[in-house]
């Protein structure tokens, strides 16, 4: 039987970027101890008070069909949060609740892309981005952000790629680079979107993990609110990855159509999870800071370790739970370095090439294990790089 080209071409006929992660998990399944620095999964669980709120809501009967757009209370809560953060008027009518940020990315591209439309995204990128675009029938077109520019995308590069495109996907704080887009970068992005009449899809799921500077949502820039769809999520900010609760914020007309799409696809998010999300958001900044604190602390640990050697360079780690490390001094590709590190030290990191051509010669390290184990693994990575760099000197 024939399967659709849309579903069989999600990865474009190549790897989905998760080969090393899958190999590390297979080693663990065989009983081999592997230090995993691959995936953005907190090493602390969802806060017990959130789980208690979820439990109470479920026992209270909120286990049936929930409102497809999201409950009125949660939509209003998200709207108030976004308005407080950005200063842009936002109501419940601007919000749709989704089963996590990934579903929000898929729905957002479905909303703005017709079949065969070109959709832009920045390289390096989170591994699902091009597949998400292909999955809605659009054509992904990467715009490189270069290591020499600290992976800040340049307006002139986006402008050069924008002919015939209908949308642009950006992500700040950025996964995989840890870079936070500055005001000048975002102003340039906004200018390109306005000149080329592009929709901007802004993935802001790491907005509470900012170590340097501040997070700025491009929806808050002049004349951008009506052409921007913001993707948010509870996964990273509240360690609720498995709860699958996210949202899209955008113009009312777009949200109305997205609600129709959800009616025919996901049919909403369980009510007891939405109630727990309301509870979590009501806790405010204190709990968000608590969830983010281990990554801020491990970033400082990493900066200290990396300052004591010369073979691994740190891309400015301004936000998110990752470090992007330049290992080109070893003479290895990111893929070869990560494979050899896994083989020799049983330490798993993600090759930069998993996140696009612009990240070649780099590896991404997730700061997601206990401080001491993290420090030991990073020191071992640096020693491995020093030895390889010595061989190529």
UniProtKB/TrEMBL annotation:
Top-rank taxon, per record: Bacteria
Aminotransferase class I/classII large domain boundaries: 34-378
Family matches, as InterPro entries: Aminotransferase_I/II_large (IPR004839), AspAT/PAT-like (IPR050596), PyrdxlP-dep_Trfase (IPR015424), PyrdxlP-dep_Trfase_major (IPR015421)
Molecular function in Gene Ontology: transaminase activity
Cofactors that this protein relies on: pyridoxal 5'-phosphate
Catalytic activity: L-aspartate + 2-oxoglutarate = oxaloacetate + L-glutamate
Enzyme class, spelled out: transferase
Transmembrane segments: none
Catalytic activity, EC: 2.6.1.1
Signal sequence bounds: none
Keywords: Aminotransferase, Pyridoxal phosphate, Transferase
Family in the record: Belongs to the class-I pyridoxal-phosphate-dependent aminotransferase family.
The name this protein goes by in its record: aspartate transaminase
Lineage of origin: Bacteria, Pseudomonadati, Pseudomonadota, Alphaproteobacteria, Rhodobacterales
């Amino acid at each position: 039987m024939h399967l659709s080209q849309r579903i069989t071409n999600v990865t474009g006929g190549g790897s989905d970027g998760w080969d090393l992660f899958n190999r590390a998990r297979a080693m663990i399944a065989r009983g081999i101890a592997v230090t995993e620095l691959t995936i953005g999964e907190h090493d602390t669980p969802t806060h017990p008070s959130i789980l208690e709120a979820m439990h109470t809501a479920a026992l209270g009967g909120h286990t049936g069909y929930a409102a497809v757009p999201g409950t009125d209370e949660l939509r209003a809560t998200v709207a108030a949060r976004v308005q407080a953060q950005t200063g842009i008027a936002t109501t419940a009518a601007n919000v749709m609740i989704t089963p996590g940020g990934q579903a929000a990315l898929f729905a957002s591209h479905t909303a703005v892309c017709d079949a065969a439309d070109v959709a832009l995204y920045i390289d390096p990128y989170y591994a699902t981005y091009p597949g998400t675009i292909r999955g809605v029938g659009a054509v992904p077109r990467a715009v490189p952000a270069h290591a020499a520019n600290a992976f800040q995308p340049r307006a002139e590069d986006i402008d050069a790629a924008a002919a015939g495109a209908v949308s642009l996907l950006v992500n700040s704080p950025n996964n995989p680079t840890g870079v936070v887009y500055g005001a000048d970068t975002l102003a340039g992005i906004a200018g390109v979107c306005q000149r080329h009449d592009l929709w901007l899809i802004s993935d802001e799921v790491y907005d509470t993990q900012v170590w340097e500077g501040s997070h700025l949502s491009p929806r808050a820039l002049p004349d951008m609110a009506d052409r921007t769809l913001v993707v948010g999520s509870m996964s990273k900010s509240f360690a609720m990855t498995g709860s699958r609760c996210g949202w899209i914020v955008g113009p009312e007309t777009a949200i109305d159509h997205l609600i129709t799409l959800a009616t025919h696809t996901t049919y909403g998010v369980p009510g007891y999870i939405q109630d727990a999300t309301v509870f979590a958001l009501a806790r405010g900044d204190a709990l968000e800071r608590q969830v983010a604190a281990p990554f801020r602390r491990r970033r400082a640990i990493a900066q200290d370790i990396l300052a004591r050697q010369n073979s691994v360079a740190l891309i400015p780690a301004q936000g998110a739970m990752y470090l992007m490390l330049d290992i080109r001094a070893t003479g290895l590709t990111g893929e070869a370095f990560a494979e050899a590190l896994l083989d020799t030290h049983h330490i798993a990191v993600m090759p930069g090439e998993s996140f696009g051509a612009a990240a070649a010669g780099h590896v991404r390290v997730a700061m997601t294990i206990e401080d001491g184990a993290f420090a030991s693994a990073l020191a071992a990575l640096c020693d491995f790089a020093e030895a390889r760099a010595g061989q190529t000197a």
